[in-house]
Amino acid sequence: xxxxxxxxxxxxxxxxxxxxxxxxxxxxxxxxxxxxxxxxxxxxxxxxxxxxxxxxxxxxxxxxxxxxxxxxxxxxxxxxxxxxxxxxxxxxxxxxxxxxxxxxxxxxxxxxxxxxxxxxxxxxxxxxxxxxxxxxxxxxxxxxxxxxxxxxxxxxxxxxxxxxxxxxxxxxxxxxxxxxxxxxxxxxxxxxxxxxxxxxxxxxxxxxxxxxxxxxxxxxxxxxxxxxxxxxxxxxxxxxxxxxxxxxxxxxxxxxxxx
Length: 259
Description:
CATH topology of the largest domain: Rossmann fold
Low-confidence stretches: none
Strand order of the largest sheet: 2-1-3-4
Mean pLDDT: 95
Strand content: 5-15%
Structural class: alpha/beta
CATH architecture of the largest domain: 3-Layer(aba) Sandwich
Distance between the termini: 54 Å
Largest sheet: 4 strands, parallel
Number of helices: 10
Radius of gyration: 19 Å
């Protein structure tokens, strides 16, 4: 099937944004309710549930030729069900900012017949390569950070996640110093109250997503790490891959350079 006749469903917000950046917005026939960027391009695209609770019956009726998934965002059983009626199931798994280069190439190859995709992919690659180079050339003060993604229970990120590796580009090492493996809940561990390593944290980062932390949670987070600086951070800029990574790397350089 040529990309010119592609009917694309994206079940990952970052990938939806990337498709639009590559000029494939008009080919979108389905998205999740979390696929909200860019708003003007996705407003008229039908929603088929969330990343974890996809409405397979509705998606089948929309007859996509391609569905885009992510190992962390979507369930394995969803991928298995889709393979029964979708010709092309594209699975992605960027685990660090540099993996965006491979991700861009993956989609550019999958939709190579679509006019303009190759050129847009090359431009995005060049922009991302420049930002990665600026991060690599920086002289960053090492920081031990606790990046909180959830409350009750407190949850953070393992060091082999995309988020942790984004933070590492500016010398911020996530705590605890553990790896979560290629997939599963261990990639986003629960923080044990009173764990000895909490006393050594320099910064507690309260992400704006998936849990929407606000000023009301500062005191609770401070109690976890009394000696740390607590600050809110833009979760989309740090955790979304694809084109958002360009702005995300700039954002982290600004944060790391601030007092």
